[in-house]
Amino acid sequence: MTSPAKALLLECHFPDAATPVDLAVSGGPDSLGLLLLALQAQLAVTVHHVDHHARAASGEDAQFVKTLCATLGVDFVRHDVVVDAGGNFESRARSARRQAMPKGVMTGHTMDDLVETVLLNMLRGSGIDGMSPMVDDPTKPLRDVRRAALHEFVAGQGFTPLYDETNDSADFRRNRIRHELLPVMRDVAGRDVVPIFARQASLMHDERIWLNQLSGADHVSLGDADCRELRDWPKARLRRWLRVQLTSVDEGDGTHPPSADEVTRALEVVSGDAVATELSGGRRLSRSGQHLTLQ
User: What CA–CA distances, in Å, run from 182 to 48, 147, 194, 225?
Assistant: First the structure.
């Protein structure tokens, strides 16, 4: 094993050697680094590549990854999906990828991606859950690896990854956080802020686990709850209980807790300030007497 790989593997969260794993590989430096490190960790790798057909060169990208896998002796699976152009493309493309690939597929998200996601969620007004993404997520084995170190490792292995020009486009908020906001924050702080935010995310994750354990003691289901009793709960307890009760399941895309706005409207239903509210997924939370119904 090469020395750079050995150093990076100490920061990775891979399973034991010979474990079968599915990897999402676009051909870019992050996912290519994921593939090379997984092979160094002696995992039984299957590569999955999703072609969104959103770029003229997407077919060439798929061929690049296929050829790379043949060179490395790795199984390759191509998934073809179509994501219509329009608003929120990044989010819809991400959802399409998740639905196309097997559950538990690993991605090349680094510590830098984690911090960018924290900042994105802050801009959306996220609570403690959005402030602690990816932490302890087995599908993100590179979450403690810095992006620059990963790219340096890939270059040192003699591979030239694909370049996605959309990563430089100011049309995407994540790119502006990466190229504009984080440099300003580094300048103001006088140091690299990525490890600071990553540490805060880890602390928030521990707090979230504790709160989830506390809310787990509230065994009352939504249908059996009495709103008169719920109104006596501390608001933080009631808010987290509602997040658990109103979490929805999206096949291929995991579970989705309600948004902060949905929880606020649900609180109004519990308090009696509203009779019902509409929720994502075509659902409706209503109150009849002192009891709640989710349809």
Answer: 31, 14, 8, 45
